XRE family transcriptional regulator (Actinomadura craniellae), 265 residues
Amino acid sequence: MPPKKPRSSWSPALKAFGNALRKFREELGWTQEQVGAKVPISGSYIGQVELGKTRCRREVALSLDAILGAKGVLVTLWDDLVMDAAYPTWFDWPTIEAQAAHLQTYQCLVVYGLLQTPEYARALLGDEESVHARMARQEILTRDDPSPPRLTVIMYEGVLHNLVGSKEIMREQLAKLLDAMSSRVVIQIVPTRIPLAGTAGSFVIATLRDTTKVAYAETAARGFTLGDPEDVLSLEESFDDIRAAALPSDMSADLIRKVMEERWT
């Protein structure tokens, strides 16, 4: 069986806009950081736009057009290419995840990937390459520049009870959840049966630094990246409904500790 062809991490429409942005920037001899400072957004964000790895808001396109003296070209391209260029379902999620200012996720089967221990991930994934990639993704939570995203995790209580690997692995994993809880990492547990809004499966909503929102929904076969505003709004409403059934953070911590001590000791 031939090896699976890796998926592209950029959208052709977004890349076309990015190419035009880079052309105007280079004609002025400016760096990405210099252009970003004038908007103001980060130079790394300008780089992501130029590579077609993210879509900027129209307001940003307007600012860039004026700053670079593009005479309406960038705005026209945005209207023609970017406005309707919803993230393709195959779009590489870690690329978006790394740009997030806030991540909100509901998990009903396993611990969220950004909070997994290596042993827990290994029991789920099996191969070391996948484990290494998952651990590398977690670096966004401890980075300095840009600042790490805020993380809000709503988790069904059954995740705490489902055996993954061994008792030792589960105890270590629950301990990590407790250690991770902070002002920037909120974990809340839904202690009763899964709310109706959560029966469709796990999902993540990423709010990017320009306030664009993108979502990732999991299915049995694979995950899908969703950029259509209606799709994202639907998941936001589901998230709010599920969160309404969750315990506050302090009570969630007590429940995690109780399960860790009573079930996994």
Q: What stands out?
A: The mean pLDDT is 87. The longest helix spans residues 12-27.
